[in-house]
Amino acid sequence: MKRLAIITTHPIQYYAPIFKLLHQRGQIAIKVFYTWGEASLHNYDPGFQQTIQWDMPLLEGYSFEWVQNTSANPGSHHYKGIITPYLNKQVENWNPDAVLVFGWAYKGHLSAMRYFSGKVPVFFRGDSTLLDKLAGIKSAVKKVFLKRVYSNVDCAFYVGINNRAYYKAYGLDDRQLIFAPHAVDNEKFSARRDQEILDLRNRFNLVDEDILILFAGKFEPKKNPLLLMEAFKKMTKAGVHLLFVGNGELENELKNKASGIVNIHFMDFQNQSVMPVIYQAADLFCLPSAGPGETWGLSVNEAMAAGKAVLVSNLVGCAADLVRDGINGKIFKSGSVNELTNALQALTTTREALQKMGLQSAEIIKPWNFNAIAKAIEDRLTGQ
SUPFAM superfamilies of this UniProt entry (predicted)? Predict the structure, then answer.
């Protein structure tokens, strides 16, 4: 059986299920090497401004090893946060047929890519795009550097249209690019929890015909929740509510701007077991990201799996793949409060119209699942 070593920083809720599934399917053998080290289980998330403990098992059902991280400032938020002098030896001792690296922008990961290049096939997984445009000398320098980085890669598993264009721009050709869609646990987000949904809507005094718009994520400039706040306050329709779920550096400003407005609501960060209820209680999910660095937006997958209409900015990486204008939602120009306001007005005519869009979302997202990712990886490794 072919053996795949997977190098990634720390256990997260979007990747651990894929590793477990690869093991369960039994087509290849895998071992995951976590480069942040065991301390990553108690990491502080600067975006949410708190330590996050996910309420789902992240280390069950597959083989893994912790890697010693010697960084003076460990973390996945900067290049020198992952320094792993023993990683290459650990991986080599397992004798893999190929190495799959998640993200190059860490000293330990880039070192591993260079070390294994030419020894065994180096696979790569990332979700960068070209949506954050650089001009002049910065763009030229970045292009030279990234072409050198990706010269170490035998194949990249691209997550969508914008990610594919990124790899093409930095030197990878069609033969090296394999589609492995970004995905979430669609079944978990689609499973109905009707009483909890009713309880949540009652908590905010919503009646049946009221429409609930949802923002869920980090309250940070990149996500641009302040634009949604501004656009919502310009709306003139009655019976429309806005719910912000999360925490972050913009929290106080958001709450100050919402002061005295009875149809704007807040909830603190909610863990994975609760989020399906929140998505299902809403009618429209909005991700108004401004970037830079809004690579995909997996919350859009979650909302669509929950059967919701979606409204996203054109700087959200998944927009080109998942949002079909007028079918399951809309795309607006990032930073334009007028475009966002107009889109909100157009989409919130009735709950029934949004529910029809939500049904389309649920159909569109079905092929974007963990099985598709696992099969792509297996087929590449086994040569099918």
Answer: UDP-Glycosyltransferase/glycogen phosphorylase
